[in-house]
Specification:
Blueprint: H1 2-13, E1 17-25, E2 31-38, E3 41-48, E4 53-60, E5 66-72, E6 77-81, E7 92-98, E8 104-109
Parallel strand pairs: 1-7
Antiparallel strand pairs: 1-4, 2-3, 2-5, 5-6, 7-8
Length: 110
């Protein structure tokens, strides 16, 4: 039974699009408590040095809105929303840069 379920899941997801998500700390200082929120899923990165990148692969089976919350070293909290959302069938890569003014810049490569 487990083998059949695994086979069905593999066949179902073989048509799923994948997007490589890259989050870049484009500030000149470390940021901490970085929460990458994608609908109901949250990835937490405890700290990112200036210029550091975090990458993960996403299966896009439903629309995905991305928000990134983080703190600077002084404890100020920032809440950002990506100007780019992902839709089923999207592939390629999406790079989100956290800027010094507390916004996100997006670069999408299909």
């Amino acid at each position: 039974m487990k083998r059949k379920l695994a086979l069905i899941m593999m066949l179902f997801c073989s048509g799923c699009a994948h997007v490589l998500l890259t989050v870049v700390n484009a500030t000149d200082k470390p940021i901490k408590n970085v929460q990458i929120k994608m609908n109901k899923e949250v990835t937490v990165v405890s700290e990112m040095a200036a210029g550091e990148k975090h990458q993960q692969s996403l299966k896009v089976v439903a629309p995905i809105d991305i928000n990134i919350d983080y703190e600077d070293l002084e404890g100020h909290q920032f809440y950002t929303s990506s100007p780019q959302s992902l839709k089923p069938g999207d592939g390629g890569s999406l790079s989100l840069s956290v800027t010094a003014v507390g916004t996100l810049e997006a670069v999408r490569i299909p």
